[in-house]
Amino acid sequence: MKSNSMCFDIATRDRVAFIQSCWHSDIVDRLRDSFLDEFAKLDGRQVDVFEVPGAFEIPLKAQFLANSGKYAAVVAAGLVVDGGIYRHEFVASAVIDGLMKTQLASHTPIFSAVLTPHDFISDGQPEFFAEHFTGKGIESAQACALTLAEYSREQIALVG
After folding, report:
1. pLDDT tens-place string over residues 102-127
2. Which of 15, 30, 32, 87 is catalytic?
3. Which helix (H) or strand (E) holds 52?
4. Is 87 assigned a catalytic role?
5. Mean of the pLDDT values across residues 133-156?
6. In sequence order, which residues have a C-beta less than 8 Å from that of residue 52 and are 6 or more positions away?
7. Do 140 and 20 contact (CB within 8 A), yes or no?
8. How far is CA 39 from CA 97, 100, 147, in A?
9. DSSP letters of 69-133?
10. 3-state SS assignment for residue 39
11. Which long-range contacts (CB under 8 A, 24 or more apart) does 118-121 make?
12. How far is the C-alpha of 115 from the C-alpha of 136, rounded, in Å?
């Protein structure tokens, strides 16, 4: 029964948090913009946008926002680039693990659009990923809206 009451609580929240890292902002901004455009078509909730320096800082901000009780969902967007050293694997893993732990502890849905392309530096790849991020923004908006709609249906079933 606790999960049903959790769904009710989330369904009544009228805001979504969107966190983005500032590194590679020319590309991550494309994801944010397409998310905002698509989400506005699918859901009437207001989206509050937050920036953090890099992807590594996203989980702490997500935890703060999820635990505030103000947001129906949190969306995280960033780009962790393989610059030829193995450090990017640790950063990507830490970010995803942090987001999952936050989601489970806060009972707030968190959507990850933190991408870690295998080959970003080669010729043509930054342009490819700029376009790819536009598509991922749309997909993230659809996943978020669909999840929140499901929570709303569960709320109606509980009340009705």
Report:
1. 999 999 999 999 987 655 555 556 67
2. 87
3. strand 46-52
4. yes
5. 89
6. 19, 20, 21, 22, 58, 61
7. no
8. 25, 22, 12
9. T--SEEEEEEE----SSTHHHHHHHHHHHHHHHHHHHHT--EEEEEE--S--SSTTHHHHHHHHH
10. helix
11. 118/82, 119/82, 120/79, 120/81, 120/82, 121/81, 121/82, 121/83, 121/84
12. 9
141 within 8 A of 70, measured Cβ to Cβ: no
Residue of higher predicted confidence among 12 and 119: 12
The token pair that represents 12 in the structure block: 């009544």
Residue of 12 and 143 predicted with greater confidence? 143
Burial 14-49, CB ≥16 within 10 A → b, else e = eebbbbbbebbeebbbbbbebbeebbeeebebebee
- Each as own residue / partner, the long-range contacts of residues 85-89 (CB below 8 Å, 24 or more positions apart, any chain) are 88/116, 89/116
Q: Which amino acid is at 62?
A: A
| Backbone angle region of 150, left / alpha / beta, with phi > 0 → left and psi within -120 to 50 → alpha | alpha
| Number of helices and strands in the chain (H, E) | 5, 4
